[in-house]
Write a structure and sequence with these properties.
The protein starts with a helix and ends in a 26-residue tail after the last helix. The protein is built from one helix and no strands. The protein has 71 residues and is mainly α.
């Protein structure tokens, strides 16, 4: 690469860091927006908003959760 190897590695590294940062920021924003919308829907329907990991609907044996990831 005729002496430009260091420059290219730094440029690729910075680009990768920015792309990963954008993905993380978008995921966090999506999570916050989802929680906010669920709380809004709960307020409009007159119910209390669900808490993270709280089981709703079919009882404690159900696999359905309202917020968060299933493992």
């Amino acid at each position: 690469m005729d002496g430009y190897t260091g420059y290219l590695l730094v440029a690729y590294g910075v680009t990768a860091a920015v792309v990963v940062g954008n993905l993380v920021a978008a995921r966090l924003q999506f999570s916050r927006t989802r929680v906010r919308l669920l709380e809004q829907l709960a307020r409009r329907s007159g119910r209390s908003p669900p808490r993270a990991g709280q089981v709703t609907g079919k009882g404690a044996g159900s696999n359905e959760t309202t917020i968060g990831r299933s493992s």
